[in-house]
């Protein structure tokens, strides 16, 4: 899957153990699905998963990794990717914007993206199949990019991986859950919480001012393929300026989180949150306690790669050091069976 700030890759086993310790859970809502790592993992454990995210690239990822089932595409996808890999490169919007106007990818790989994405757009594929192909292309581009993991800026010198040839691979689809087909929706979390229903919910909201759409704007443009006007050195989509989530605002995030917790039609809630977040550990416990007793796990981990390499100026010059290199990830569990869960984790 793609490199992603806030990815729960290192927490997958822990989160899996948490959900498996909760009694009578067959279905799970993943309200802020992001890369769908968690939703994909839970589906692999047998749960029916209902993923949601407002960002277009995240919706495509969830459609591929949560909604789509392996048995429906095991024969067709390898053949389609083989055809895409053989396409003649073309010089288009992606190459000009992200290889020349900015320098996220080498031009030879940008031209492959242009050719493949234009081909997808000309085919009469339904959204699920289209998403699988777009995710394969997104991940292939991610493997040859020249960033430190986010698309706020590109590296001053080309990353070694950027010289490799872009090549598509078959996404790791999961089998269908015995509890029913999993789903993927694209909605504001506050609205989705009012309409989705399951046995349990997993919440991994943004925790500070960093906007995921700004950090991964290239993937949004690849999925939407609307070739938008851009601004700045990073060639961000101009429409990124128009929307700011309440979850990126210190004065509004607690109220928004409370609304979601109150509206969710579930018996159990699991929340991932960071100790650098706008909501403190005690505040989160207070918010969640309206739904039952709260149990908290703490996990220590390295900060994102940008923190590891220090503070740099817009020109790429190192101008300072970060204050700390490790964080704590909190996992909050709210359930009527919290005592039983605590013994099993």
In short:
With 345 residues, the protein is α/β, with parallel strands linked by helices. It has a single domain (9-344), classed as Vaccinia Virus protein VP39 (Rossmann fold, 3-Layer(aba) Sandwich).
Structural descriptors:
single chain; 345 residues; alpha/beta; Rossmann fold; 7-stranded mixed sheet; two-stranded antiparallel ribbon; 14% strand; globular
Outline the secondary-structure elements:
Elements: H1 12-21, E1 27-30, H2 37-44, E2 48-52, H3 56-67, H4 70-73, H5 76-85, H6 93-100, H7 107-122, H8 127-142, E3 183-185, H9 189-195, E4 200-203, H10 212-215, H11 217-224, E5 230-231, E6 236-237, H12 253-263, E7 268-274, H13 281-288, E8 294-302, H14 305-308, E9 311-312, E10 318-320, E11 326-334, H15 338-344
Parallel strand pairs: 1-2, 1-4, 2-3, 4-7
Antiparallel strand pairs: 5-6, 7-11, 8-11, 9-10
What does this structure look like?
The protein has 345 residues and is of the alpha/beta class. The protein has a single domain (9-344), classed as Vaccinia Virus protein VP39 (Rossmann fold, 3-Layer(aba) Sandwich). It is 39% helix and 14% strand. The protein has helices at 12-21, 37-44, 56-67, 70-73, 76-85, 93-100, 107-122, 127-142, 189-195, 212-215, 217-224, 253-263, 281-288, 305-308, 338-344, and strands spanning 27-30, 48-52, 183-185, 200-203, 230-231, 236-237, 268-274, 294-302, 311-312, 318-320, 326-334. A seven-stranded mixed sheet has the order 3-2-1-4-7-11-8, with helices on both faces. Strand 9 (311-312) and strand 10 (318-320) form a beta hairpin. It is globular, with a radius of gyration of 20 Å. The two termini are 27 Å apart.
